[in-house]
Structure formats: C-alpha cells, structure tokens
Amino acid sequence: MADLSVRIAGVEFPNPVIAASGTYGNGECYTELYPLSRLGGVSCKGMTIEPKMGNVPPRIAETPSGILNSVGLQNIGVHGFVEYYLPTLKEEGNVIIANVAGAVLDDYIAAAEVLDASDVDMIELNISCPNVKAGGATWGVTKEGAAAVTHAVRKATKKPLIVKLTPNVTDITEIARAVEAEGADSISLINTLLGMRIDINSRRPILHNNVGGLSGPAVFPVAVRMVWQCYKAVHIPIIGMGGISTWEDAVEMILAGASAVQIGTAIFKDPYSPLKVIDGLSEYMDKNGIRSVSELVGQVKPW
Ligand SMILES: Cc1cc2nc3c(=O)[nH]c(=O)nc-3n(C[C@H](O)[C@H](O)[C@H](O)COP(=O)(O)O)c2cc1C
Fold it and tell me: pTM higher than 0.70, yes or no?
C-alpha cells in the first residue's frame, strides 16, 4: 500500500488532502458525514482578532465552473474559535490549521499571539485582505506588504507558519520569495481571483460588494501554473489549491510542485470529494508503484 503521509514544516499529515479555509467551516457540518480524521488536515474558517459579521448579501454568485464569493471573513473571532471549536477539532481531526486575517499589522500580531498559546498545529496567514493603512490595497499584492505581514507574524509565533498567497499579482514568484525570506515555513496558493458579474436587467452587480473572489474548476489551470512557478522559485514546501475537484486534479497539482493539496469549492458540490481524492490518489500510487507522495512532488517534465 502506498504511504500517503507527508511532512510539512515538521508537521506530519496522514495524507496530503486538506479542507480549504472558508469552505469547511470549522468542521462542524461535516462530522455527521464522516470522521474528520479521514482528512490530512482542516484549514479553519479565516479568523480575525475581533468577531466579524461579514459582508451584506448577496455574497455568492454562481459562474461557469466556479463561484464568486464576497463573504467578507464572517467569523466568531480568534478567542471564540479557541474556546468553542478548537477542542472538538483537536479531538476529531488530524492537523488543525488556523487561517488568520487582519486589517492592520497589530490585528495579525494579536491573533497570532492568541493562537501561539493555543493547541493549533499550524497558522495559515491569509494575506489577501485589504491593508487598511495602505488605502485598502491587499497585503499580498506587493512583495513589501507580503514581507511586512510575514515578518510581524513570524515574530509573534513559533507555530509552523504557512503564508497563503493571492493570485491577483503580476509575478507570484517575487511574493513567494519575499515571504520565504521573512521566515515562512511553507506557502499555500492560490486564494481566489478577483472577479465580477452583473445582472443585465437591474444593471447591478450580482454581489452586494460589487466584486468577489472566483474559485472552483474555472481557476484550476491558473493555480497549477502558479504552483509550478513557485516550486522553481522557493525551497519551502507548497500546499496547492484552486479548483481541485478530482484525484486526477490533485495528482496534477502535486506534479506541478505541491507537497499537499487543499480542496475548497468542490466540497460545496460534493462533501465527500476530499475522501474520493484520497482514495483515487492512493490507487494511482499503487498502480504506478509509487511508494511515497514525495516521489511525485514537482515531477512534471516540462517540454
Ligand atoms: C465561500 C468561500 C470562503 C472563503 N474563505 C476563505 C477564508 O476565510 N480564508 C482564506 O484564506 N481563503 C478563503 N477562501 C479561499 C479558499 O480557501 C481557496 O483558496 C480558494 O477558494 C481556491 O480553492 P477552491 O477552488 O478549491 O475553492 C474562501 C473561498 C470560498 C469559496
């Protein structure tokens, strides 16, 4: 039998399939369907130091092969997460990843300090949020912004740190290198691509926020390309995501350079999709005599 376990930043995952932040809540809706321990890990709903109501609806719009969302980080706050969700997650799941967002550096630092003192296994830094002091531009769209937030959080925690990159940039590799230089233990990508839909009758944008993040199968080739570029640019392990819905997609993402994958939007269509990906990957490895996932990572043969 193939060994599906992977090690990222010193953390052992029993398999390389992780539920993506914002698409799995904090696991609470899925424990009735299957044990969380079937997954390699769970990246929890993005959390902020204070609770947030999120954006005004409509916050979801369907698109061909994907969805646009502008949920706006609705969450109960880091303290609420640690108190209400984390104990069950730790009891029932494998690797528990806290996904952290903030509007100013102090928010990120405060959240990281709370989590540092908690039982979470890893912190995933969402740098796709607006930097309020920089006029609302996203932290992760410049190497300076990405470096600043990584630097601040690195100082605030000893937990293994994954920095999650936004694809809404010209050169993803310069951002990846900047966060690696500031002490990120791993990078994950991609977050959603900024998009917009308009209702032609009302002439209003479908999302109340006007714009939102595109995810799902539509973004998969963009994600594969960016993971491949980052694999060649950094030495830290990569967690690949963006549009994965089948085990074949997961293998493709691993060949591009991902050491593990996250599955998001596909879970809305089929909550069992992460389990199907795990089984399919295992069979593929067995059939091809591959003993360890690491034998596949980055093994694409470019022309
Ligand atoms: C409804 C929704 C909410 C999301 N919330 C978060 C979040 O809180 N933090 C985060 O880092 N990413 C968030 N994401 C992005 C996903 O984690 C993932 O990066 C992205 O959707 C691409 O993967 P997918 O195509 O498999 O969904 C969200 C995505 C969706 C669809």
Answer: yes
